[in-house]
Amino acid sequence: MELRISGLSKRYPNGVQALNNISLNIPAGMFGLLGPNGAGKSTLMRTLATLQEADAGSVTFEGIDVLREKERVRELLGYLPQEFGVYPKVSALDLLNHFAVLKGINDSKKRRELVDVLLQRTNLYEARHRRLGTFSGGMKQRFGIAQALLANPKLLIVDEPTAGLDPEERLRFLNLLADLGQNIVIILSTHIVTDISDLCKQLAIVARGTVVASGDPLALVAELQGRIWQRFVASDELAAYQQSHTVLATRRAAGRLVIRVLSDSNPGAGFEPSAPDLEDVYFLAIHSTPAQAIPAAAQAS
Ligand code: ADP
């Protein structure tokens, strides 16, 4: 089972090239799509979810031409958009039951069983009689997953699900996704690096509508081994360091400013070697032009 995207491009009528020749093979399991705001993630997700048209390229999944055979895709698709609207006055149980009716699950006993199972799986069973308007952000997102699972999807697309969730809700939501198993393709788009690093065996980093890095996150991190250095700097020194070094990131640690620098050898006094992490991979990738992007940059060492 693999979702194959080849040469996918999309330009909006206002001239924005949101997708520029995207090619990716996405295997079963959790796949992370990481990129800054405006990178093209939602455009890609909506295209895969048959909600908008591409200008060029092809997408296949389970023998289906995703861009053309939209009805067939929808039969095996679960989609959780960025903003999942709910009817605030209806209970979780009633709305999920209603969606199940719309999905064509007509046998009321089977429908009830399925709805109960999904409410339990998403940890909402205890709250099933509560109106959705009283749900927290995390509960609403989990309800969104419950409705997306009604169709028993083989392809589950989840667009920026953790925005606005507190840390505990975020963790609970991500664990729920991880539990959905390795037998379906789950694409999780996010601009939060740690959403991906803990869960996804494969990822793609997109910027300006192109894939600037892709692969196994651990392998991408390993390619930067020995090349990340850091040191404390004073705020007024930062600009000079940015001129003279490849500064990937600035962080605050214990109220002081720390810069992380990419360098094949010790970049100078005061720098300590530091273990690379996925955030380093991410910042390097999004600030490189596609030709310089990792792994090419990493191979240069
Ligand atoms: P992301 O999800 O990574 O934030 P989007 O796919 O939403 O990225 O947007 C990619 C680019 O396309 C952005 O520059 C955005 O402003 C633009 N864009 C998105 N939707 C539209 C639209 N309907 N019309 C015109 N431009 C759009």
Overview in brief:
The protein has helices at 41-48, 70-75, 92-102, 108-121, 137-149, 167-179, 193-197, 217-222, 238-244, 278-287, 296-299; strands spanning 2-11, 17-27, 29-34, 56-61, 64-65, 77-80, 155-159, 185-190, 202-207, 210-215, 228-233, 246-253, 256-262, 272-273.
Helix and strand string, N-terminal first? EEEHEEHEHHHEHEHEEHEHEEEHH
Count of domain modules:
2
Query: Which ligands occur here?
Result: adenosine-5'-diphosphate
Mean pLDDT: 90
Helicity level, as a percent range? 25-40%
CATH homologous superfamily heading of the largest domain = P-loop containing nucleotide triphosphate hydrolases
* CATH architecture call of the largest domain: 3-Layer(aba) Sandwich
The low-pLDDT segments are 290-301
Number of strands: 14
Helical segment count: 11
Rg for CA atoms: 22 Å
- Main beta sheet, described? 6 strands, mixed
Distance between the termini: 35 Å
Rough shape? globular
Task: Decide which structural class fits the backbone.
Answer: alpha/beta
Topology-level CATH name of the largest domain: Rossmann fold
State the strand order across the main sheet.
Answer: 6-7-8-3-9-10
Strand content: 25-35%
Question: Could you describe the 3D structure shown?
Answer:
The chain has 301 residues and is of the alpha/beta class. The chain has 11 helices and 14 strands. Helix 3 crosses helix 4, helix 4 crosses helix 5 and helix 5 runs parallel beside helix 6. It is globular and about 70 Å long. The C terminus is likely disordered. The structure holds adenosine-5'-diphosphate. Adenosine-5'-diphosphate (ADP) binds next to helix 1.
